[in-house]
Amino acid sequence: MSDVRPLATRERRLDYVEFASRDPAASRRFFEQVFGWSFVDYGPDYTAFDDGRLQGGFFRGAPQTASGGAPLLVIYADDLQPMLEAVLAQGGQIIKPVFAFPGGSRFQFLEPGGNELAVWSERDAT
Questions:
Q1: pLDDT tens digits for 40-61?
Q2: DSSP readout, 87-104?
Q3: What would the pLDDT profile of 99-126 be if each residue is shown by its tens digit?
Q4: Exposed (0-12), middle (13-18) or buried (19+): which is 52, by Cβ within 10 Å?
Q5: Residue ranges covered by each domain of the chain
Q6: Domain spanning 7-121: CATH superfamily
Q7: How far are the Cα atoms of 53, 55, 64, 68, 105 from residue 3, in angstroms, in the given order?
Q8: How far apart are CA 35 and CA 75, in angstroms?
Q9: Of 19, 51, 14, nearest to 35 (Cα)?
Q10: Count of CA atoms in the C-beta half-sphere (13 A) of 45
């Protein structure tokens, strides 16, 4: 969980996020392949990630979905269609297809470990 950013830029900001995952190894493979995140394993039950901006980890446990009250983490992508295709190709499940909202469009998915996330873009869904 080390970070080289100056403490002043981290003060009072989200700094690390952890997800429960039924299968941390499957979550790791999914996020490596779809989003290009880097990982470090800490045994079979925990893997830490770095997406280039935020760090976090996946621990073995029962995930909750946003529809069940868990926070929804949203990833940005300039173009949604290639991301949607990559999510499906790597075993993700689309649970809310692409829809427009004021300011852009997004879709929501479940990754193989059971976590619900979203991908959004400033581009219109049409």
A1: 999 999 999 999 999 999 999 9
A2: HHHTT-EEEEEEEEETTE
A3: 999 999 999 999 999 999 999 999 886 5
A4: exposed
A5: 7-121
A6: 2,3-Dihydroxybiphenyl 1,2-Dioxygenase, domain 1 (3.10.180.10)
A7: 10, 9, 28, 32, 32
A8: 9
A9: 51
A10: 3
Helices and strands in the chain: count of H runs, count of E runs: 3, 8
Distance CA 27, CA 21 (A): 7
State the Cα–Cα distance between residues 58 and 1, nearest whole angstrom.
13
CA 97 to CA 103: how far, in whole Å?
Answer: 17
Element (H, E) at 59: strand 55-60
pTM of the model: 0.88
Residue 78 tokens, joined? 């300039």
